[in-house]
Every structure is written in structure tokens, then in C-alpha cells.
């Protein structure tokens, strides 16, 4: 933090007054992960190839950036390569200004369909749009090696790998043992805003609007912009995780009345509606990631219009409104499984997420799941569960107590079973027990509030198969740091999650987890599949279908990962080379997964903890949601043949999710194609 403060003072001393827009550019570049306008549609693999083309080099360091002996950071490898390639790199002078770099990044982002539409509009007037490679040459070639490294990580939206590097000279085991996350202070945008703007205009604006651009405008214009803006993303509350029902109540112990709301298994939808005379209602829908998903979720538009009475005279607001909801999949009148949402979006979206066909597995099998959802006789469809209102008719409701916002919400929304719901909730009165019962009495008198919460939790998660509960203090404001929302789920409570024995077959690299723990290996989790005949002999076949980056066997994730890494390397890893691998088994890989860097010569049985079960697509097996590795067993202790079989997995999932059966109409067809056998057509 002191480094940033000194840099700011030096910048002002040398260049004051700063040109208009400088604050916006600096914060966009310093915190690229918070720059939601720009998406570059490139990760390390693609960007490294583009950079090699840009400079006319072919250096293995740029493609092997994540392997042992390398930095684990593509930007650092770019710096190393350019320092070795360019003459007089120490005395390099860059002729690009901050504004030049910002504009080139805008132009680069305009090529991605995931970027904000304003970027595409801004550059569409050009007579001939430049290619990605042409833009990258204009951006990279004037840069010194260190500057090029920084720009690389900005495009990857991750400066941490460069600012807080892993020691590439250490082995994975040494790095994990010596790494101490507390020894570093990572600059965050909130603290940077406090340093940049001591009057806190930036911070207060950002806490509401969640926009670096709006926060920068507030600072440079000297105005206060700390009220919501229709059409701009509003910062969402972050929930605390409760480790037990009693822990949940302890977090909210200062509140007299708490409501336990059902946590619905869907995707967040922040809905903005603006009424303009003579035109249709203007709808904007943001996802939890702050992306404008209005076109993706176009199937929700008529639902929103109906439930707010916008197609009649029943609407209860006059100008505009911002609502919080969960987008869920319905099957008739009942909420369906979370994974169904993906297919419904593909079937109904307008724009980049609409798809007609989807490849499945490595057998080039095409799955017409989107077509199935488009069938008019299908009972599955998207819907909404509303749970809050934050803004109405030009007035912010952020400081209004939750109980009042809920009353207003119930007056605004017209429920429609099977399409629109209001979140279910139960009142828990803490006042009587927390304030009128003495500490000595609490030892002998059973807590009625805790009992009530436990009963609700068991009923909703065990008997009704729901995801969990969100606890909210009745008098709390929206996004209240003193009374946060508290999330209670089964997998948060030790011993209450869903565990399953799977097969660990390979390893790979996960950038974010590697940077957090200081290690360089990700663990891949695999489901054991049935054997099939190949070359006259029976070989076991595995289907690689999910991954886990979390290993925690003793309460210390870093030590657990270090121990697993050591075990895997000691037993031998076979580099992943699809054309030249001699393995005692065959395998297939789900098309949505990255390829592993190495496979195990002998598979290991692992115990995996998850938050219930889900799928990546209709034709993939069920997998643990948010999987974490709890145990692993050496082959001498347990054979991989003792892991779960597909048919046993289906029975387990049916019990956990409350399904009468695993609903896969094409189960036999899928199995035949997976094993390369003729279909039933």
C-alpha cells in the first residue's frame, strides 16, 4: 500500500495536473479483473501463439509457462524471452502513452462478442476493422520487455502472477512448504481508491455502482455518485459462510429478528426496468459476473413484463426499478436441476450463447439438447424467483430495512406458479432467547431459535432437496457490512456434505489455485467407467469428466496439496501425448475440460466431498458440485476397482436430489456411441 501511495505522489509531482480520464485508465489497467467492459477472448495458450507471431519468435518458454521449472506466469516468460531476443532492452523507450494503450485494448476487446456492446459500436465505423494480430503488433512492438509482461497479464486479467510470483527455482514441494500468503500484502482496489481519493468519493461510488469508470468519474468531477443507476450493474452482497446453524445465528447475534430464505439453485439475475413514454419497457439483465445478459436471457423478458403488470394498468411503479432474482429452470410447476439452465439458455438466447448443436466427448458426438428444449411439448422452461428490490422511481432503497423492502417486493410482483415465485422464508425471533435468557440458563435450556433453524434447514435440504438457506436480518440494509447475509449449506457443515469414491487419473495446471497456494499442480478427478474390448483384450476404460483444485485432508490445504503432489510424482506420471501413450487403460475426456499435462500409470481411489451433484451437459454423468479431495488411497490399500460404478452413482444421485430415476431418455444410445458401437437409428 505504501508503494502505491509513493507512486501516486511521484506521478502527481511529475505530471500534475493529470489529463482528464487518467484515473479511469490507471484503475482499468491496475485492476483488469474488475474491468467488466472488456473481454479479450484469449487465455494463455492462444495469447502465447499470438505473441510469438507478433515478434517472429518460436520459443518453448512461452508454451511451457506452466510446467515445472517455469514461472507459472506467461507475462514473466514474455519478459524473459524479449530480454534475450531484443537488443538494448534495458534502454528501451516506449512511445505509447497510457491513453494509447487503453485505446488499443479497447480495439482488441471490440473483437470479442463477450465485450460490452459499446466497444463494438465505437469501432464498427472503421472502414476496415483491423485483425487481432494487427492490433497486437501496434500494442506490443513499442513496449519494453517489462511493459510487454504487464500488458500480457492485463489481457489475461490477472496481474497477481507477475506482482506476486512463485519461485520457479523451487520444486513444487519446496514452493508449497515455503509459501506464506500472509507474508504479502496484495493491493486491492478498495484500498487503492482510499489512497487515490482521501474524500472517498471513488469508494462510495464503487460500493454501489461496481464500476471503475463511474468511480473515476466521481473523483475527477468532484461529485457524489453513490446512488444506483438504472442500466448499470449494482454491487451485490457477498454472503458469509456459516459452518453450522449455531454459527449462523452467532454471526447475526445482534439482530432481534432474522429471516431464513430458501437458497435457490439457479443463476443470479439483477433486473433493471425503465419505462419511457411511447416505447416498450427497456429491460437490462445482469449476471453475477456483472455481464450484460439481456440477450442471453431474452426468454425472461415476457415473464418480467407479466409479473410486473407492464402489459396492463396493474404496474405499481411509474419510471424505473431494479430487482434481485434467481433465474431457475422449471419443469412444469416444479424447479428443476441447476444444469438444465444451460440447455434452456442455448435454446432460447438471442446472440452469442444461442447454439443449435453441441459437441460431446472426444468421439465427435453431437447432442441436440438445445433442440429438445425448443420442442413446444417440452415442459421445461426458464423462470424467476424474486427476493429483493433495491431501487424504484428514482429513489434508492439500499438503506431501507430488509423487512420493508420485502413488503414492497410482495406488492410489486404477481406470482405465477411454475414461472414466477417469491422466495420462501421463515421468521426466527432471536430477541427472546438472546436477550432474556441468562448465560447460566442457556446451559440447561434448549435454544428454541436454534431448534427452529435446524428444523427448517433439515426440512428444506433433506426433505425438499433444496440447496440451502440464506439468513437475513430484518433490519439490515442492502449489502450491510454490519449484518451480512449468511449462507448455510450442507457441505459447509463438517460431515454433512455428499462424498463419493472416484478415480484420480491425471494432473494439470490451474492458474488461480496455483497462485493462491503457491503450487504448480492441479488434481483431475475422474469417474470410473465400464470396461470395453479393444485389440482383442479387455482394458479398463475411464471417462475424464470433472476436476478438483481443492485438496484438504487435514485442515491445511497447502500441506495436503504438497503431500498429494509428492505421492503422485513418486509413483510416476506419464506426460500427456495423445499420439504416443502406452497406458494400461483407455480413456475419453469431456469436451469442456482442458487436457491434462500428465496421467497416472496406476489410478488412485480418492474420496471426494461435494455440494450435491450436477452435470456439465445432458449426456455427461453426474459429478460432485464444487468437488474437494478429502482422502486418497495407495493401490496397495484400495484398488481403483472399488470406486463407484456408473449404475451405483445414478442410484446415489437419485437419493440425494430426490429424483425418482435418472432422467436420461437416450441413456442406451449415449452408452453405445461412447463405446463406439452403432446407434439405434
From TrEMBL:
GO BP, sorted A to Z: DNA recombination; double-strand break repair via nonhomologous end joining; nucleotide-excision repair, DNA gap filling
Annotated ATP-dependent DNA ligase family profile domain residues: 375-518
One Pfam family of this chain: DNA_ligase_A_M
SUPFAM superfamilies: DNA ligase/mRNA capping enzyme, catalytic domain
Keywords tagged on the record: ATP-binding, Ligase, Nucleotide-binding, Nucleus
Family: Belongs to the ATP-dependent DNA ligase family.
PANTHER family, sorted: DNA LIGASE 4
Protein name, as recorded: DNA ligase/mRNA capping enzyme
Organism: Dendrothele bispora (strain CBS 962.96)
The organism's taxonomic lineage, starting at the top: Eukaryota, Fungi, Dikarya, Basidiomycota, Agaricomycotina
Amino acid at each position: 500500500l505504501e508503494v502505491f501511495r509513493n507512486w501516486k505522489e511521484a506521478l502527481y509531482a511529475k505530471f500534475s495536473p493529470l489529463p482528464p480520464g487518467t484515473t479511469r485508465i490507471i484503475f482499468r489497467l491496475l485492476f483488469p479483473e474488475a474491468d467488466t467492459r472488456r473481454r479479450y477472448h484469449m487465455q494463455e495458450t492462444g495469447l502465447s501463439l499470438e505473441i510469438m507471431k507478433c515478434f517472429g519468435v518460436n520459443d518453448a518458454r512461452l508454451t511451457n509457462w506452466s510446467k515445472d521449472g517455469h514461472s507459472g506466469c506467461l507475462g514473466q516468460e514474455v519478459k524473459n524471452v524479449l530480454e534475450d531476443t531484443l537488443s538494448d532492452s534495458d534502454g528501451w523507450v516506449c512511445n505509447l502513452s497510457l491513453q494509447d494503450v487503453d485505446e488499443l485494448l479497447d480495439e482488441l476487446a471490440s473483437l470479442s462478442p463477450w465485450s460490452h456492446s459499446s466497444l463494438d459500436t465505437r469501432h464498427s465505423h472503421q472502414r476496415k476493422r483491423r485483425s487481432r494480430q494487427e492490433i497486437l503488433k501496434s500494442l506490443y512492438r513499442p513496449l519494453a520487455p517489462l511493459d510487454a509482461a504487464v500488458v500480457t497479464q492485463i489481457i489475461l486479467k490477472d496481474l497477481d502472477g507477475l506482482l506476486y510470483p512463485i519461485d520457479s527455482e523451487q520444486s513444487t514441494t519446496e514452493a508449497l512448504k515455503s509459501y506464506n500468503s500472509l507474508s504479502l500484502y496484495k493491493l486491492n482496489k478498495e484500498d487503492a481508491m482510499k489512497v487515490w481519493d482521501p474524500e472517498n468519493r471513488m469508494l462510495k461510488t464503487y460500493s454501489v455502482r461496481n464500476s471503475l469508470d463511474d468511480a473515476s468519474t466521481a473523483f475527477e468531477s468532484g461529485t457524489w455518485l453513490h446512488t444506483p443507476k438504472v442500466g448499470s450493474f449494482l454491487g451485490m452482497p457477498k454472503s458469509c459462510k456459516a459452518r453450522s446453524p449455531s454459527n449462523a445465528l452467532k454471526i447475526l447475534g445482534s439482530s432481534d429478528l432474522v429471516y431464513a430464505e430458501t437458497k435457490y439453485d439457479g443463476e443470479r439475475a439483477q433486473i433493471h426496468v425503465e419505462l419511457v413514454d411511447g416505447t416498450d419497457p427497456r429491460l437490462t439483465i445482469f449476471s453475477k459476473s456483472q455481464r450484460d445478459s439481456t440477450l442471453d436471457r431474452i426468454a425472461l423478458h415476457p415473464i418480467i413484463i407479466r409479473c410486473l403488470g407492464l402489459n396492463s394498468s396493474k404496474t405499481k411503479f411509474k419510471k424505473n426499478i431494479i430487482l434481485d432474482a434467481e433465474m431457475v429452470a422449471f419443469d412444469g410447476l416444479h424447479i428443476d436441476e441447476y444444469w438444465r439452465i444451460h440447455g434452456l439458455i442455448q435454446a432460447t438466447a438471442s446472440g452469442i450463447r444461442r447454439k443449435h448443436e453441441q459437441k460431446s466427448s472426444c468421439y465427435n458426438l453431437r447432442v441436440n439438447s438445445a433442440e429438445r428444449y425448443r420442442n413446444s411439448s417440452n415442459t421445461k422452461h426458464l423462470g424467476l424467483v424474486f427476493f429483493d428490490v433495491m431501487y424504484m422511481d428514482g429513489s434508492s432503497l439500499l438503506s431501507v430495512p430488509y423487512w420493508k423492502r420485502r413488503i414492497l417486493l410482495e406488492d410489486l410482483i404477481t406470482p405465477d406458479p411454475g414461472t414466477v415465485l417469491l422466495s420462501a422464508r421463515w421468521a426466527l425471533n432471536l430477541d427472546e432467547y438472546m436477550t432474556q435468557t441468562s448465560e447460566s440458563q442457556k446451559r440447561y435450556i434448549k435454544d428454541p431459535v436454534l431448534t427452529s433453524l435446524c428444523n427448517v434447514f433439515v426440512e428444506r435440504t433433506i426433505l425438499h432437496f433444496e440447496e440451502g438457506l440464506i439468513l437475513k436480518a430484518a433490519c439490515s440494509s442492502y449489502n450491510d457490512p454490519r449484518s451480512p447475509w449468511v449462507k448455510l449449506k450442507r457441505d459447509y457443515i463438517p460431515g454433512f456434505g455428499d462424498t463419493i469414491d472416484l478415480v484420480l487419473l491425471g494432473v494439470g495446471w490451474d492458474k488461480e489455485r496455483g497462485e493462491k497456494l503457491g503450487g504448480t499442480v492441479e488434481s483431475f478427478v475422474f469417474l470410473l467407467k465400464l470396461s470395453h474390448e479393444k485389440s482383442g483384450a479387455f482394458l479398463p476404460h475411464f471417462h475424464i469428466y470433472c476436476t478438483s483444485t481443492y485438496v484438504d485432508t487435514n485442515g491445511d490445504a497447502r500441506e495436503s496439496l504438497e503431500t498429494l503432489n509428492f505421492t503422485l510424482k513418486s509413483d510416476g506420471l506419464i506426460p500427456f501425448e495423445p499420439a504416443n501413450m502406452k497406458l494400461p487403460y483407455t480413456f475419453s475426456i469431456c469436451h469442456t475440460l482442458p487436457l491434462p499435462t500428465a496421467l497416472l500409470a496406476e489410478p488412485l481411489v480418492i474420496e471426494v466431498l461435494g455440494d450435491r451433484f450436477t452435470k456439465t451437459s445432458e449426456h455427461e454423468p453426474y459429478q460432485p458440485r464444487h468437488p474437494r479431495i478429502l482422502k486418497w488411497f495407495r493401490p496397495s490399500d484400495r484398488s481403483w476397482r472399488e470406486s463407484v460404478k456408473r449404475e451405483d452413482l445414478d442410484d446415489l444421485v437419485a437419493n440425494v436430489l430426490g429424483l425418482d430415476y435418472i432422467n436420461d431418455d437416450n441413456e442406451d444410445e449415449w452408452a453405445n456411441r461412447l463405446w463406439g458401437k452403432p446407434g439405434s437409428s
